[in-house]
Every structure is written in structure tokens, then in C-alpha cells.
Amino acid sequence: MPHPGVRRTLVGRSNAARPESTELDVREEEWLSCDGESFNMDHAQILGLIAALSGTPEVDPFALLRAAAAKPGTVVSVEACPRPLPANEIEGVSLLCGRVKVPEDRSKPGGKSIPLAFAVLKATSRFPEADPVIYLQGGPGGSAVAQIPLIERIFRPWRDRRDVVMFDQRSAGLSGLSTSCTNMLATNAYDIVRPDPATTLPTLARQCVAELEKEGVPLAAYNTTQNALDVPLVVKALGYGDYNLYGISYGTKLALEVMRVAPQGVRSVIIDGVAPSWINLYNAFALKNDEAVQIVVDQCAADRACNEAYPDLGRIFNEALDKAAKGDIVFQGQKMPVEAVAVP
């Protein structure tokens, strides 16, 4: 039996009437696939397969990117990837990290640039598709580049054919240098390590905003639309043309915004766990918690046995939440810390 994947028969013929020449009519060859099924290939397909298997890839794109980063005035820089790295990745060979500079405030051409951290997981194919997958992290505010091992596991099947690119959005994760409240952090180190969520965090947030405004940071430039306009700049800086978007959670909202404000070059879009563009996510999270409690209250009221046992369940819930927020919940004779039982 022929080896799977190896030619089994060659269909050809000789021209007996013209012994001075031999005409080989290679119209079709029969092959066996790895599962034992046969399939046919014509002459052009055979030649294409031979060329693909015997050819060599073009110049290493990572080498081109490193060369571009070495030129003065470039928007790309290459730097060490954050640790830990996936065990099967070789930095500089299958994985490359760095930063791409984008305009901070697009209303001021020629103004300040901010660096966005990126990581590229190279396709495992020797001849990958030209259009990469661009992963858009959720949050907003989550870091993708700081989670390379996790992202690599999720997108490993995609790398059979395409590069996978991730980047931290402006002010998020490793791209947060432009909005770091260094003075506030240094002054309130103890409160940050052991905060009182009900009072400390809102106070620290106000101090951070005041510090950034004093430094002239244009906070209005940090929003979903500006994040969306950053996407094609990152893609182009890394040497790609068309690209595919994969967004999760807030990343779906960002993907929809890219389609709205910068659709050029977008080949396809996958939105996973959709966050509609018209919804304020943080407000929606609180609303969903309230709705969940109300559903339980309504179901209890509609159930005779439950309603008899807890005729005023809504009031009981609210009183329990108020006690939790004040630190008045007692367990085994001791009041429990607020942060242990309630998140305002």
C-alpha cells in the first residue's frame, strides 16, 4: 500500500505513431490523504505544491521590524517582552515586543506622541496569510501585553495561518505611562496598599485626575474613538496591510468603533461577548447587579411559600446591603470588614 500522502499512480501516454517524441499527458495524478482517502491533483496544482514545499520564505519580518526600529525618527521601537513568556516561544524569533508611537491629541497636529505597547506572535506556518489577527483587549483598561502566555494559548490555533498581534490601548496596562499619577501614588502608598474602598478610592481617583490635569494631560483624548483611530496606526507601523479584528467584551465595542471611524483595511471582524456602543459598561455592571436582585425579589413574591416566609424580601436585601456598607455585619461575634462583604 502506498504511503499516505504519496503519489499512487501517474496517468500518462506515449505517442507510438511518433517515436521521435514522447508526449507525456500529465492531466491528473491520484494521491492519498493522511486519512486514506484519495483525491486528484492537476498539473498546475502539483507544480504549485512542489514550489510551495521547496521554496523559502521571504525575509524575516521581525528582522525588517528591528531594522526599521533602529532608524532615527521611527515610530516603532523594539524592547524586551514582559515576563513570564510562554514556554514554547523564542523572543525575537517567534515573539516580538515593543512600542508604537501615536498622536496623543489628534486635535493638535504635530503635538505630543504616546507609546503603545505591542506584542506580535508570529504564525507557525512557513507561508502565512498576509493579514494578521489583531486582538482587542477588554476592560476598558485591561492589559493584553502583560498576559502573553494567556493570549498565546487562546489564539494558538489561529497562528496556523496568521500572525497574532496584541497591544495595550492608550492609558491601559503597559501603555499607561502617559496617565500615571506618580505624585499621588508616592504620597498615598499606604492607603493604596490597604484601602478603605468606601472613602479612599474615590479620594485617590480625584487626586489622580487633578494631578493629570495640572500636568496638561488632555483627558478628553483618552476615549474609545481615539483607541479606534490608534488601531490602523499600530497595524501599519508593524508592516501589515489588511487585517482582521477579534474583540472580547469592551474589545467588541472598540471593534465596532473601528468599523465606524476607520474601516479601511479591515478584512473581517469577530466580536465575542458583545458590548454595544451605546451602553456605558461601568454603569451597566451596577445596573445588572440591581436587576439580578430585583428578579429574585419578584420571583419570591410570585411564589406563595417564599412570599409567606419572606413577605418583604426587598427590604431585607436593602437593609443587609446598608449594614454591609457601614461595616455592621456581625459574624461569630465580630464585625466583618466592609471590603469582605460589600463593594460600593
In summary, what is this structure?
With 344 residues, the protein is of the alpha/beta class. It has helices at residues 43-54, 61-69, 148-155, 182-187, 189-193, 200-214, 224-237, 250-261, 281-302, 304-309, 313-326, 338-341; strands spanning 7-10, 29-32, 38-41, 76-79, 95-103, 113-121, 133-136, 164-167, 243-248, 266-272, 330-331, 334-335.
What is the count of DSSP helices, taking H or I runs of 4+ residues?
Answer: 12
Per the principal axes of the C-alpha atoms, what is the gross shape?
globular
Say what the CATH topology of the largest domain is. Answer: Rossmann fold
Tell me the helix content: 25-40%
Q: Any guess at the CATH architecture of the largest domain?
A: 3-Layer(aba) Sandwich
CATH top-level class of the largest domain: Alpha Beta
Q: Count the beta strands.
A: 12
Output mean pLDDT: 82
Give the uncertain stretches in residue-range form. 1-29
Q: What is the CA-atom radius of gyration, in angstroms?
A: 29 Å
Q: How many angstroms does the end-to-end distance come to?
A: 71 Å
Oligomer: single chain
Overall tally of structural domains: 3
Strand order in space, largest sheet: 4-5-6-8-7-9-10
- Strand coverage percent: 15-25%
Largest sheet: 7 strands, mixed
Q: What is the H/E order?
A: EEEHHEEEEHEHHHHEHEHHHEEH
Structural class: alpha/beta
SSE blueprint:
Blueprint: E1 7-10, E2 29-32, E3 38-41, H1 43-54, H2 61-69, E4 76-79, E5 95-103, E6 113-121, E7 133-136, H3 148-155, E8 164-167, H4 182-187, H5 189-193, H6 200-214, H7 224-237, E9 243-248, H8 250-261, E10 266-272, H9 281-302, H10 304-309, H11 313-326, E11 330-331, E12 334-335, H12 338-341
Parallel strand pairs: 7-8, 7-9, 9-10
Antiparallel strand pairs: 1-2, 2-3, 4-5, 5-6, 6-8, 11-12
Helix pairs in contact: 7-8
